[in-house]
């Protein structure tokens, strides 16, 4: 664990009491520093996260995942000396081994950003409707950012401190995923993608994006 003392995990958290303790416990097998940004949860998410050993920063009301991510980034930059931060979802879809491999890649290749991609190998099993949503998001993000990603709306990312300083999210809801790519691209710092396994469980599927949400993302990007 000592080799990752320079890394903080940022977990946006909203009503994930059923799974967040396991997510934090799994993270702590590799990473010592985990901060959950509770975005106005109305269940026992805070107690579960703290009970598993996470530091919790709280929003008094629900502001959206983009706002939670920005709060987490601001916290890490202001309150820690971390060289890297990792954004990691709270619903159990992401794998700790992927996060570890991405931090190692950032170090070994001197990368400022490593984006997780579920489309660089065959481990992730997404249904056809989900693939339509994700490919639509990839197309829109690549058109607006000038980057050429294979997976735009993947919440698993490694961001080096200098790149994180260039992030100032204004899109509080789901369009933040394209906005953060745009802002990281504008830093002109070196980046790469890395294959990751997104595990779709019955629980995570029940909270997933619909085709309507993909349309809402595009509307947010164009008009806001």
Can you describe what's shown?
With 224 residues, the protein is an alpha/beta fold. It has a single domain, classed as Alpha-Beta Complex (Spore Coat Polysaccharide Biosynthesis Protein SpsA, Chain A), CATH 3.90.550. 42% of the residues lie in helices and 17% in strands. It has 9 helices and 7 strands. The protein has helices at 20-27, 45-51, 65-79, 96-108, 128-145, 161-164, 176-186, 202-205, 211-223; strands at 7-13, 33-39, 55-59, 84-87, 113-117, 157-160, 191-195. It has a 7-stranded mixed beta sheet with strand order 3-2-1-4-6-5-7, with helices on both faces. Helix 2 (45-51) links the parallel strand 2 (33-39) and strand 3 (55-59). Helix 5 packs parallel to helix 7 (176-186). The longest helix has 18 residues, at 128-145. The radius of gyration is 16 Å and the shape is globular. 45% of the residues are buried. The model has no long low-confidence stretch (mean pLDDT 86).
Number of helices: 9
Distance between the termini: 42 Å
Estimate the helix proportion, in percent: 40-55%
For this structure, the CATH topology is Spore Coat Polysaccharide Biosynthesis Protein SpsA, Chain A
CATH class: Alpha Beta
Largest sheet: 7 strands, mixed
Shape: globular
Q: If strands are numbered along the chain, what order do they take across the biggest sheet? A: 3-2-1-4-6-5-7
């Amino acid at each position: 664990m000592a080799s990752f003392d320079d890394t903080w995990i940022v977990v946006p958290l909203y009503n994930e009491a059923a799974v967040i303790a396991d997510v934090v416990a799994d993270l702590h097998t590799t990473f010592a520093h985990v901060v959950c940004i509770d975005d106005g949860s109305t269940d026992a998410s805070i107690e579960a996260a703290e009970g598993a050993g996470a530091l919790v920063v709280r929003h008094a009301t629900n502001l959206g995942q983009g706002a939670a991510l920005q709060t987490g980034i601001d916290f890490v930059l202001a309150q820690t000396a971390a060289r890297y931060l990792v954004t990691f979802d709270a619903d159990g879809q992401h794998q700790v081994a992927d996060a570890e491999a991405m931090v190692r890649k950032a170090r070994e290749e001197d990368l400022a950003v490593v984006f997780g991609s579920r489309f660089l190998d065959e481990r992730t099993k997404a249904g056809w409707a989900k693939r339509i949503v994700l490919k639509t998001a990839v197309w829109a993000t690549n058109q607006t950012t000038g980057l050429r990603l294979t997976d735009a709306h993947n919440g698993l990312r490694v961001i080096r401190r200098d790149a994180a300083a260039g992030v100032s999210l204004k899109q509080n809801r789901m369009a933040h995923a394209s906005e953060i790519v745009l802002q990281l691209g504008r830093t002109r710092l070196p980046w790469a993608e890395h294959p990751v396994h997104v595990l779709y469980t019955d629980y995570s599927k029940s909270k997933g994006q619909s085709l309507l949400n993909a349309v809402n993302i595009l509307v947010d990007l164009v008009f806001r």
